Amino acid sequence: MDLNRFPETFVNEASDAIVVSDESGIIQFWNSGAERIFGFSSEEAVGESLDIIIPANLRKRHWTGYSETMKSGKTKYGAGDLLSVPAVRKDGQRISTQFSILGLSDSFGKLTGVAAVMRDVTDDFEERKELKKSLAECRKALNEQLEK
């Protein structure tokens, strides 16, 4: 086992998407997990804006937060916190994702980019939504029975 190659192999081949963007939100790194989840090859994604995976109706909010993070050097979504947001695939399909981010700094400590580890949780999200709907229907039916 060659542990010297482990970090590079892990980052490149992880099943989760690992996406690195610079301070302007331009994709600098896109692993095989990102290819699988979003449908864009690395060649298609690197050099493009994160807009390729952000639903149009959420872009303004995203860029406001992204810009603030780059200016302040701080994010409320670090330290293992998970952010759940919709994303969009190359084919236009909307998916549910969860991700955590890591700020990337230069040698002076200035935030110069962000690395995100992202997972497609669409199936889980849809299942929870159905369970909540069923629970609400059961509660309604029970309340109706108790009122009789």
TrEMBL record:
It comes from the Bacteria. It holds the Pfam family PAS_9. Residues 11-73 form the PAS domain. Gene3D superfamilies: PAS domain (3.30.450.20). InterPro entries: PAS (IPR000014), PAS-assoc_C (IPR000700), PAS-like_dom_sf (IPR035965). Residues 81-133 form the PAC domain. NCBIfam families: sensory_box. This is PAS domain S-box protein. It comes from Sneathiella litorea.
